[in-house]
Please model this.
Amino acid sequence: MKTLREAACGETVKVKKIYGEGPVRRRIMDMGITKGVSVSVRKVAPLGDPIEVTIRGYELSLRKSDAAMIEIESFF
Model:
């Protein structure tokens, strides 16, 4: 299982599943991150948060703890 936290900068991936419960899951889904959507990783901070991504034309910043709850699959 590969998560969004492990995705490399410049990689485009597809969301396979979202883990977590309650407000954490709701926060992720409120950003437009749902099953099947493609996510482009723009920048990963070397030491701490955030991970900057592009989803549905919007540029967003995700906490690494939230990104670890998003299972992905690569486009190959």
Observations:
- The helical segments are 22-30, 64-67.
- The beta strands are 2-3, 12-18, 38-44, 51-55, 58-62, 70-74.
- The radius of gyration is 11 Å.
- The first helix runs from residue 22 to 30.
